[in-house]
Amino acid sequence: MSAVSTASQIDPVERRREQRGWYWYDFANSAFVTTTATVLAGPYITSVAKTAACGTSEGDCDVPLTVLGLSVSPGALYFYAITITTILSAFILPVVGAFADRSGTKKRLLAGFAWAGSFFAALLFFVSGGNWLLGVLAMMGASLCLGASLVVYDAILIEIATPDERDGVSSRGWALGYVGGALLLVINLALLTVMKDDQGLAARICMLTAAAWWAGFTFVPFVRLRNRPPVNVEKLDGGALGRSFGQLWHTLQHARAYPMTLLFLVAYLFFNDGVQTVIYASSVYGSEELGFETDVLFIAILTVQIVAIFGALLLGRLAGRFGAKRVVLGSLVAWMFVIAGGYLVPENAMVPFILLAASIGLVLGGTQALSRSLFSQLIPRGREAEYFSLYQAMERGTSWLGTLAFGLAFTIFGSYRIAIVLLVVFFVVGGILLSRVDVKRGIREAGNEMPAVV
Questions:
Q1: N or C: which end of the chain has fewer CB within 10 A?
Q2: In a 10 Å sphere around its CB, with 0-12 CB exposed, 13-18 middle and 19+ buried, how is residue 113 labelled?
Q3: TM spans, by residue (predicted)?
């Protein structure tokens, strides 16, 4: 067992240098999250599926696709694919976390998963005609690799930031991520404007640029971060993979020792399900339900990105004064009003749609950044990646209820609007559970330093 080391033992100058390098992975992967996962992949794969089923991507298509012997509506295919991906994540990511905690090579793992994900993301460029299967597999591979890289990325936060620094460091990382997402969106919006006569090719090029952006800017954290030996890892028999499964099982057996950590994870499961469904469904909802073209979707998502920069920094400052838990609870109340507004937006009403996007941006970054830093306070030292794998499993591996609801709502009612109402339930339940989390008790149970403001 290695001795426990803390971020406060790192020279402050070196610590800030690593923190600045760490921020850049948010900058790198946000290009894929915004341009591909949020804006283009859903509508594009849906149009390809319609072409395969009906011979054209225009208008409604009531001819089902046959997927593994099942009949699937082209309009629901993307949501079912995301549902399968997130369920797979729930099983894969905890093993990734257990391996990362035992490896001592977190920055290499971070970069490896990022570059593998960007490879899958680049394959989307070759999706055309009715080749929906390649699009689905590429998107699933990219999403799984993104989740695995974020398990490692989030765990590194604990190594390079003291408890009092984490709210600010996490918020600045999210803010820089939104800067990166916004910059590439501006570039790609210009490309879509120039290539109006071939929007399909333009979308494929945009997704390729997102993959290249993700891969290229990952070199910054790869160069600036340091690998550190694992700490507080109990010795288990077997090879590296076997020890990873063994460590995971050992942690799950003893998780009852950290009831506040587990309660936070359950709360996060619910309210983050709502957040992730908004992210995945926003472009399809805007295009299929509200009737907006791709350029309007880009403007809306760009609005989200720009406002989210300031929203993440603002909520980070508020957390330094009132505590992360109180600020996250306030943001969940705001989310309920945002979702209600989304349900009421009329078809083809651009101004209300853009105002809705700005409202999402105001609460999106802060909710995600402060949830990450709050959870970091509740993790027992030496199991950062393993616990953050559970966190990412909640973020990417259990957000399937919302996407499943959208897929089923479209199949049954032919409308995504009804599913919007269901999302409010996730925020209500998540908020109630989060209100019952005793953060001070959780920090003490995990054996961590108590920050000045809780």
A1: N
A2: buried
A3: 77-97, 109-126, 132-153, 174-195, 201-223, 262-284, 296-315, 327-345, 351-370, 390-410, 416-434
Q: Output the pLDDT for position 378.
A: 92
8 A C-beta contact, residue 98 and residue 248: yes
Judge contact between 362 and 307, C-beta under 8 A: yes
Whole-angstrom Cα distance, residue 158 to residue 177? 19
Note whether residue 174 is domain-resident. Answer: yes
Q: Is the dihedral of CA 169, 339, 300, 298 positive or negative?
A: positive
Question: In which domain, by residue range, is 414 found?
Answer: 9-240+254-446
Structure tokens at 164: 């009092």
Q: Is residue 342 part of a domain?
A: yes
Rounded to a whole number of angstroms, the CA Rg of the chain reads 21
Q: Report the number of distinct structural domains present in the chain.
A: 1
> Which residue in 319, 392, 381 sits closest to 169, CA to CA?
319
Q: Using alpha carbons only, give the angle 383, 384, 387 rounded to the nearest 5 degrees.
A: 80
| CATH number of the domain where residue 322 is located | 1.20.1250.20
Cα–Cα nearest to 390, from 372, 369, 404: 372
Q: Measure the CA–CA gap between 183 and 192, rounded to whole angstroms.
A: 14
Distances in Å between the alpha carbon of 438 and those of 258, 261, 274, 428, 433?
Answer: 11, 9, 23, 18, 11
Q: How much of the chain exceeds pLDDT 90, in percent?
A: 34
Cβ distance 217 to 24 under 8 Å?
yes
Are 239 and 390 within 8 A, CB to CB?
Answer: no
What letters, b where the CB count within 10 A reaches 16 and e where it falls short, cover 249-262?
ebbeeeeeebebbb
User: In this model, does residue 388 exceed pLDDT 90?
Assistant: no
CA 393 to chain centre: 10
Instruction: Enter the tokens of residue 140.
Output: 């699933």
CA distance 33 to 396: 12
Mean pLDDT of 139-167: 91
* Cα within 13 Å of Cα(356), Cβ side: 25
Helices (H), 254-383: 259-284, 294-322, 324-344, 350-376
Rounded Cα–Cα distance for residues 323 and 375 (Å): 13
Closest of 409, 279, 412 to residue 342, by C-alpha = 279
Specify the amino acid at residue 233: V
Block residue for tokens 């009403």: 349
Residue type, 67: V
Residue 31 lies inside a defined structural domain of this protein: yes
pLDDT of residue 403: 65
Q: Give the position of tokens 């105002």.
A: 355
Q: What are phi and psi of 365, to 5 degrees?
A: -60, -45
Neighbours of 435 (CB within 10 A): 12
| SS3 of residue 128 by DSSP | coil
